[in-house]
Amino acid sequence: MKKWAFVSDFDGTISKQDFYWMVIEKYFPEGRTLYDEWKSEKVKDIDFLSRVFKSINQEEEQIIQDIYDMAIDPHVPDFIRKVQENGGDFFILSAGTDYYIKHTLEKYGITNVPVFSNEGFYKEQNVHMNVQESNWHYHERYGIDKSKVIKKLKEEYETVDFIGDSEPDSHPAVYADTTYAIGVLQEILKERNVPFIPVSSFKEVEAHLIDSKVVTGEG
To answer: What residues contact 202, with CB distance under 8 A and at least 6 apart?
Structure first.
């Protein structure tokens, strides 16, 4: 059994902004109404995202540039290297799509990071999602069942840590050995009596890992 895995959500955790909000603000103002319907649970997460991503109507060069322009937590590349240098494996777990995640990793030269997410691809000026019910981690609402991914990783690793920022992350948080919570996830986990460590950045996570002697402070 491998020793340690660190699993991170992407939108709002690694990235400073959810990809769907960037699309809504730049290309799809009607998406605000759809957002309200989604938040009131009239629309499933996967249907909301699929509709937004198919409303970009731009050439792929422009979409990739928009992805590159999205801000991320500046400490993330160093944090990933720190995890890997200390014998851990870093994973990204997202209910969005791997399309923009992989372009982000490419931009920052981040390698050896497996991505668990809904498959995404560019076609006819938009980003399309390929969600297959036959996938072992399929989920009717989110496209990907984050809890199933964490539970599977726990069969392979002695310790699985997780970080997230929103409601979909509350489900895998139950199964992680340690959960780091950003933003509204803190209140959700508090209400559900799920233990967590409150943080606002990957710098704070690293400081906690150093204090816990999981990683060294050098480098």
So the answer is: 73, 75, 76, 79, 163
> Which is nearest to 164 in space by CA: 176, 155, 173, 156?
173
pLDDT in tens, 86-122: 999 999 999 999 999 999 999 999 999 999 999 999 9
Q: Please tell me the pTM assigned to this model.
A: 0.95
Beta carbons of 97 and 118 less than 8 angstroms apart:
yes
Cα gap 70→23, rounded to integer Å = 11
CA dist., res. 42 & res. 96, Å (int): 19
Whether 145 and 131 have beta carbons less than 8 Å apart is answered as: no
Q: Which two tokens stand for residue 70?
A: 């999205």
- Fill in the amino acid letter for 172: P
Q: Answer yes or no: are the C-beta atoms of 177 and 197 closer than 8 Å.
A: no
